[in-house]
Design a protein that fits this description.
Layout lengths: L30 H4 L4 H4 L10 H4 L1 E5 L8 E6 L10 H14 L2 E6 L3 E6 L5 E3 L8 H4 L16 H8 L9 H4 L15
Parallel strand pairs: 2-3
Antiparallel strand pairs: 1-2, 3-4, 4-5
Bound molecules: iron/sulfur cluster (SF4).
C-alpha cells in the first residue's frame, strides 16, 4: 500500500524494511502504518479461521477503501510462495472479487502482481497476460469490462454486500470453529 507520510507509492517496498524482516523504525512508524490491519484481523466475518496468516502462509489486505476500484492484495510468506494456490483459496479469492467488485491480486515479493482474480470470474496471470500487469507487475490493468457496474466507494459496498466465506468452503471446513488462533498479532503494510 502507499504510505503518504513516507512518499512511498503502492506496490513498492518500504525503505524501512529491516533486512531480517519487520520494520526498522517500529515505534515511530507513520500513522498510515499504525492504522493498517490485514483482513483477517478486521472482522471475524470476513475470512475463515483457516486463513490465519501464519497458518495459511499468506495475508490479505485492502489497497484502500475510499474510492473505487480497490485491490485486495494477497502477500505470501517468502518461504511458501505457492501457499495461495489451492482450490479452496482460489474459490474465496474469486468470491471476494465478485462480491466486492474488485481485483484480488497475488503479489510476489511484496510488490509484483502475479495473478489477478477479476469480478467477471476471469483469472489473469502475468506469464500469460503481461498486459494486465504493466511495469513488470508493479501496475494493474484489469479491463473495465471485467468489473461490475457498482462503482461506489469500496467501504460502502463492503458494508452493504458483506461476504460470506462459509458459502464458499466445503461444509467440513466451514463448520469448524476459529480454533485457538488469536487476532492480536502484529501486521504492517
Ligand atoms: S510499518 Fe512497514 S511500511 Fe511502515 S515504516 Fe515500517 S516497514 Fe515501512
Amino acid at each position: 500500500m502507499a504510505i503518504r507520510e513516507l512518499d512511498k507509492p503502492a506496490w513498492t517496498p518500504c525503505a524501512h524494511l529491516a533486512p531480517e524482516g519487520g520494520c526498522s523504525i517500529w515505534g515511530t512508524h507513520p500513522a498510515s502504518c499504525r492504522s493498517f490491519t490485514c483482513l483477517w484481523r478486521r472482522s471475524d466475518a470476513l475470512l475463515p479461521p483457516q486463513m490465519f496468516p501464519p497458518d495459511c502462509g499468506f495475508m490479505l489486505s485492502l489497497d484502500q477503501t475510499e474510492t473505487w476500484p480497490t485491490v485486495v492484495k494477497v502477500c505470501c510468506d517468502a518461504a511458501r510462495p505457492d501457499a495461495w494456490d489451492q482450490p479452496r483459496w482460489r474459490e474465496i479469492f474469486a468470491g471476494l472479487a465478485e462480491a466486492w467488485n474488485c481485483a484480488v491480486v497475488i503479489v510476489e515479493a511484496g510488490v509484483r502482481g502475479a495473478v489477478a482474480f477479476a469480478p467477471s470470474g476471469k483469472v489473469f496471470s502475468r506469464a500469460e497476460d503481461p498486459g494486465i500487469f504493466p511495469d513488470e507487475g508493479r501496475g494493474l490493468a484489469v479491463p473495465a469490462l471485467d468489473y461490475g457496474p457498482d462503482r461506489r466507494a469500496p467501504v460502502e459496498r463492503i458494508a452493504e454486500v458483506g461476504f460470506s466465506w462459509k458459502e464458499l468452503l466445503p461444509p467440513s471446513l466451514a463448520e469448524r470453529g476459529r480454533g485457538t488462533t488469536g487476532r492480536g498479532s502484529r501486521s504492517g503494510p
